[in-house]
């Protein structure tokens, strides 16, 4: 077999550190040195541990009939969220879980959330103080956490859900520490010295989240009230083909997984969008003109159909894909990829970031230019912020709805100012590509 090009001089832990500290630099330098397909072992001691970025490779990676790749739940996700969440599940169990989870994230269910998203955005922005500095990332995390709590539990204002919000913030704060990220993977680093030690704090917040979720499930089981229409209730009532419902443990892991997946990624996307809108005043002006055409018809159905707003969201997700790589795939047979024969069992990562920065697809890729999405239609292997195939993002429709409504509400109603003089660089927070420093802004009152 011909060896796949890549850096084999350094150990995998060094690759991992390089990726976490500078994900973009890491992917780009590998691409420049080794080309369309390279070996870069950021996890485990695999050789080869493949990365691809060409649409042809994505077509094969996402293909379901025939399927050349499976996915295994990552150890990180299993330890971080729980073995029973859809993201960690594999094979038939994974398919079963997707079938249960997909319906509430589509169509009529989502229509109900539009007004709540606008309300949550207005409440969050109104809490900002005139002329005071705030971090756009914090604002967006606050909004997206409220939204996902609303979607999952229906009643974010309930005291128990407010407590849950606090515990989730503490749990996710831990991701800022590289020590915690490492400890999630390495049990010997999990040293619990009480609430002042990083792992102690992390464990306590996770324990608190578990208690609250279990309390909520128990209360609902006792209530036996079928008037709830949120995702927790839908999941509690859902039955698979064998007429089996989810256990409490399964429900807990599923809810935690959705809270995590549905909050961090959307917050990152929104922060990048607001950053670019305030950096590129011509884009902001053009978008405002479009939003202003709505006049008194500032309604969910009208907002979501605005073409330039859609293009702005797409361009943001192109330039800064919140998940810069797909979930790792494993070849389930020997397969030819980009001219190389990969043996069964080879792990493959799709670099969403590199694909979205290809000159042949997106000329001058470092330029934020939403117009490219109005001039050309991209295939599902060229524009892939939500991945594809059997692992594609379950929350895609919700994420897009949220992005459009939050951005339109902020731009239409409020004035903000960007307080960053230098280009804001991306970094990894857990699995998500976030802006370093959180993007400093100030609130300038109503528009
Ligand atoms: C801008 C926001 C978001 C982005 C960019 C995003 C992106 C992604 C990507 C790239 C994947 C992996 C796909 C693959 O490997 O093929 C994924 C998976 C997933 N996403 Fe999202 N996501 C977003 C928001 C959400 C939301 C709002 C939810 C739910 C509430 C969600 C739930 C999930 C779940 C459950 C999976 C795992 C699916 C599986 O394992 O079958 N995501 N997402």
From TrEMBL:
It comes from the Bacteria. Its cofactor is heme. PANTHER family: BIFUNCTIONAL ALBAFLAVENONE MONOOXYGENASE_TERPENE SYNTHASE, CYTOCHROME P450 FAMILY 4. This is Cytochrome P450. GO terms for molecular function: heme binding; iron ion binding; monooxygenase activity; oxidoreductase activity, acting on paired donors, with incorporation or reduction of molecular oxygen. Pfam families: p450. Keywords: Heme, Iron, Metal-binding, Monooxygenase, Oxidoreductase. It comes from Rippkaea orientalis (strain PCC 8801 / RF-1). Belongs to the cytochrome P450 family. Heme binds at residue 393. The lineage of its organism: Bacteria, Bacillati, Cyanobacteriota, Cyanophyceae, Oscillatoriophycideae. Gene3D superfamilies: Cytochrome P450.
